[in-house]
Design goal:
A hairpin with a 3-residue loop joins β2 and β3. The strands form two sheets. A five-stranded mixed beta sheet has the order 5-8-9-7-6. Mean pLDDT is 84; it is low at 1-11. 27% of the residues are buried. It is elongated, with a radius of gyration of 21 Å. The protein has helices at 24-44, 52-74, 118-121, 161-175; strands at residues 16-21, 78-83, 87-92, 99-103, 107-116, 125-129, 133-137, 141-148, 153-157. The chain is of the alpha+beta class.
Length: 181
């Protein structure tokens, strides 16, 4: 988790930041890199005697699968949460994509949940389930459940989620929006 501007996580801080990381995703990224390396090796040092088409399909298949796994996993190695006076911004991975900005005016309330698991959401990543809402899940553990005014929920796995919920609730109280619950 990143350092907060003030260690006591009080509501008067201008920006609260949090982070959750999943180191297992790096292993999956290595699998993607290995697939790409195999495709490159096949292209450079091929001894195939059965023609160009099977070789080309193998090379393209290995490289495409490697890129898909590599970038798909690196996008969800970590999630960053930035909470300022007007909104929450959720950014995933090193490039910050996918990204979602939720204005506090759209938040009805925030709750702490002690256990968010990829199994409940169908895996890691940016998830949507009709009965549960939307989530960004990068690891199992604590998280924030935002209740939005449109009836939807948005769940984020983040370290020190209780502090984030306290800050969100305080900001909702000071602006007169939302229910503190």
């Amino acid at each position: 988790m990143r350092d907060h501007l003030q260690a006591d996580d009080s509501p008067h801080t201008d920006v609260w930041t949090g982070r959750a990381t999943n180191r297992v995703q790096w292993l999956l990224a290595l699998v993607g890199a290995a697939c790409m390396a195999l495709g490159i090796e096949l292209a450079v040092d091929s001894a195939w005697s059965s023609g160009v088409a099977p070789l080309a399909m193998s090379v393209v298949g290995c490289i495409a699968a490697g890129l898909l796994v590599l970038f798909g996993t690196l996008a969800f190695v970590h999630v960053d949460l930035k909470l300022d006076k007007e909104s929450l911004e959720i950014r995933c991975g090193h490039m910050g994509l996918p990204r979602r900005r939720i204005p506090l005016s759209h938040v009805a309330g925030a709750d702490f949940t002690a256990l968010v698991t990829p199994r409940h959401w169908g895996g890691w990543g940016y998830r949507w389930r009709p009965e549960m809402g939307t989530a960004v899940v990068v690891r199992r553990g604590e998280g924030i459940v935002l209740r939005l005014w449109d009836g939807h929920t948005f769940t984020i796995t983040v370290d020190n989620a209780e502090a984030a919920v306290r800050v969100i609730r305080a900001r909702l109280r000071t602006t007169g929006r939302g229910s503190a619950r």
